[in-house]
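In the laboratory, one determines a bound structure by crystallizing the protein with its ligand and collecting diffraction data. In a computational setting the workflow is compressed into a single prediction: the sequence and the ligand go in, and a structural description comes out. We illustrate the idea with arginine.
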Amino acid sequence: MTLLDNLSAIVGDAFAAADLDRALGAVKPADRPDLAQFQSNGALAAAKAAKENPRAIAEKIIEKLLGHEAFDRLTVAGPGFININLTKDYLKAGLGAISNDADVGAWRASDPEKIVIDYGGPNVAKPLHVGHLRAAIIGESLKRIFRAAGNEVIGDVHLGDWGLQMGQLISEMALRSPALAYFDANNKGPFPKEPPISIADLEEMYPAASAACKADEARAGLARKATKELQAGRPGYRALWRHFVDLSVDAMRVDYDDLGVEFDLWKGEADADAYIPELTDDLRNRGILEHSDGAEIIRVARDDDKKELPPIIFLNSEGAVGYHATDVATIVDRQRNIAPDRMLYVVDARQRLHFEQVFRAVEKAGYFEEARLEHLWFGTMNGKDGKPFKTREGGTLKLRDFINMVTERAIDRLRENGFADGYSSEETSKVAQLVGIAALKFADLSNPRTSDYIFDLDRFMAFEGKTGPYLLYASVRIKSVLDKAAAAGLKPAGDFVLEESEETDLALALLAFGDAHKSAIEKRMPHILCDHAYRLAQSFSKFYAACPIVSAPEVRLQTARLALAKLTGAQLKIVLDLLGLEAPERM
Ligand code: ARG
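The predicted complex, in structure-token form:
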């Protein structure tokens, strides 16, 4: 149970004892922290329903709560709010509990689930670009956040490895090097283990092939034919396709590694293909597929729809599968092999219609409950012109170049701030990469996931304010405070002391972690944990300014403050990890 859950239960009991709805006892942080720590607004709602005076009801509730060990001061405020302050003993007991917890107060789900999270979506032969950044950053964070609550979470990159672009590449390769063994229709293999081209060739070939297909209908026909033959299993094409996928995956892994993004599964759209014949039969037999203009479709519109929802095309007029069908079949694949309780998709807002259609089709087919499929869409990272972020020349920026740019800027910033002085160039680069990635990730995560935001590297990279670098710095600083205390021979005490207001504020911040974690999960919104990390770092900074540790006047204060600092360091590390941020050893 979180702090707010505990307090709400206690106040809820008092409402119940007054013959009122227990739910009215909900407690939340005070709107005016200068007046109280927490508040409960239930008396207002109760009064409205009973046509009574809210202040009188609030008085009645307070009377029932008097003498409870948790409450130090309870007052009626304004039209009938109950203002709440907690006793030091209650706060100290809370601190004791989280210091015995390996996760330092993280929330634990009472009913953990098995969850697949689909959050990569890169396409084979196309280098990762900034458009892939948000899915990776938000998805990785959500994966960690859900996992920390005790859920079993499986992250899948879900490669785009099966569409028309594969046929474009194969046909391009056939035009360029027709003598290769892959293009001999009678050759059943085995084919060479080494790929016939490099990743650089592949990345050059992709835009050339797609431009050629756009410009020339006959050329496009070759691509469609190759796609169909690939999907039908032509051995040379499959072998070539495997090379393309492997080359791309090797390159993608490097970029995702640098971002600190890690997938459990490297499956793709192609893995769903094996299910298509069986699903087609099944859907046909049950009358779920309908013929329409030569294609096979599934209608997903419902009577009460406010906007029109077009059907999905399961098989196109050439009998090939597209993006809708692979997503349907992937859900079946996951259901059979993983049997998750839930599937989460961290994909751009521009695909909302797509997922709505897919989820409805799956529900209609009875393959998976729509309510357990969630599209956790996100807004766009824009440039300063308010349009989707581009390079100065107007192109899409490769993720690799982007990471390099951010790391270089971080090196400048470290120098300007006199950090990393005297470090080897190796350590400086390592620290710079952590700082740069933290700047990027924190800026991305600290907005509500569904908002657009403007990319502003200078702002993201500042060491003051609500930024990734500030939080890394705070974490490193706590560590050095702890090291200093250890060098002075101090050991953290078992008993906390909360005499200064800064100590109490830090205790309240530490105890708020469970609620922040729970709320981030319930809303599927990592920014709530960004807020928590910032609050924690700021509370620590005020605490440390007001409450010296090594130079405190009494040993009792020294060791108790050290315990509070240690707890803060441990919790901040966990929260940063949930956001995908890693602090350097020193900076
Ligand atoms: N490859 C897709 C694209 O580039 C994104 C895939 C997202 N995940 C999914 N299950 N559809 O648009």
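The mean pLDDT is 95. Keep in mind that any predicted model is a hypothesis to be tested, not a measurement.
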